[in-house]
Amino acid sequence: LAEHHPEARIVLVDAQRAAEGASGRNSGFVIDLPHKFALEHPDPAHKQKLLGLNRSAIAQLDGLVQRHGIDCQWSAVGKYQGAVGERGEAFLDHFEHLMKDLGEPYRKVEHSELNAVLGTSYYRRAIFTPGGYLMQPAALVRGMAENLPENVELLEQSPIRSLQQEGGKWRLLGDEGEIQAPKLLLGTSIFTREFGYLKNRLLPVMTFASWTRPLTDIELARYGGELNWGLTPADHAGTTLRMTADRRILLRNSYKHVPQYGGSINDGMRQRIQADHRQAFLARYPDLAEVPFTHTWGGVYAISRNFTNFFGQLEDGVYASACDNGVGAAWGTISGTLLADLAVGADSAQLRDIQQVTGMPSLNPPEPFLGLGVKSRIALAKWQSRREL
């Protein structure tokens, strides 16, 4: 927006501090490939459009990191997709088939080579794809917030309680005042429904991660693997695993339906989730049993029943990109950029691409059927994938 209109006053409003939300709470993958269910799309052109959009996002983020010297462990190291048992290997075989259909480079990594990278013999094998990046998400978002264009004003810890349309402008009412603007761009993900849009179309899901303190030199020698890699599970309900550039081991698994967002989580649930993470950690790294977790956290994101992202105009003067379906870093970057193009009337091939690969998230069944259905599906996936956790 600032590049299109350097003379305009642009206000970026966050209810929390920048990076305290989901954009700073993910596992630090910026993935170029169409993700999960998008890879199953029957139209090859659809998948190529997604691939092009994701790679444009990576190039944009790479440029911002380099230009502003953002210290966020930004790394072009690709990623592994790993299998623990037979179920995971079946998913991995299917993933290889999809990579061949997409015409994308990949490399099989067998047990002994994978063991040398991960420092654990827990995984049978993996597929390595070279196009993904890793980063520290909160550091990336804070770095961008600290290097905004001069005509952008950042208001943090400034929740907007309601929107009102009046005299051709929108009034954003907050705790300590109001903002008036002719156009609004909502990058509000699951919270878009709290402003009255996409009601009954978005599902709030929280996924959880834990990480250790940085390993000491002695622990690092005992670990025996490499630094700065990331592995996602071939079985989507499995465990994501990372060794960060600053020697932390991170695990992510456990999904919860959170109709009240953070209010759906209590201390007992947090303790059970951390215990599950501890069990997964010890299964992979029993020789590091004395290394503690320093943090366990969750982040809320939006999914839709038809796995469709929303992008476009909601009503006169209101635009939104919502429902990333769990692929936030790349999708949020490119969809936000192109939403600005749409709002100012700037046409491009990429804008047409994103309009062709997005749509309307499908309606959800009413409660209590929705909550029961989501919880049952998550529980079934956890049971089916129990050997991959």
The fraction of residues in strands falls at 15-25%
Distance between the termini: 43 Å
Low-confidence runs of at least 5 consecutive residues: none
The geometry reads as: globular
Helix content: 25-40%
Q: Could you spell the SSE succession in H and E letters?
A: EEHEHEHEEHEEEEEEHEEEHEEEHHH
Largest sheet: 8 strands, mixed
> What strand line-up does the widest sheet have?
4-5-3-13-14-15-12-16
Tell me how many strands there are. 18
- The value of Rg in angstroms is 21 Å
Q: What is the averaged pLDDT score?
A: 94
Q: Helix/strand-derived class? A: alpha+beta
Number of helices: 9
Could you explain how this protein is built, in words?
- With about 400 residues, the protein is an alpha+beta fold.
- Helices cover about 30% and strands about 25% of the residues.
- It has an eight-stranded mixed β-sheet with strand order 4-5-3-13-14-15-12-16. A three-stranded antiparallel β-sheet has the order 8-9-10, with no helix packed on it. Strands 11-18-17 form a three-stranded mixed β-sheet, covered by helices on one side.
- The N and C termini lie far apart (about 45 Å).
Please outline what is shown here.
The protein is α+β, with helices and mostly antiparallel strands and 389 residues long. The protein has helices at 44-68, 86-102, 111-118, 137-145, 217-223, 267-284, 328-344, 349-357, 369-384, and strands at 10-13, 29-30, 79-83, 107-109, 125-129, 133-134, 152-155, 160-166, 169-174, 178-181, 184-186, 203-212, 229-233, 240-243, 249-257, 293-303, 310-315, 318-322. The protein has an 8-stranded mixed sheet with strand order 4-5-3-13-14-15-12-16. A 3-stranded antiparallel sheet has the order 8-9-10, with no helix packed on it.
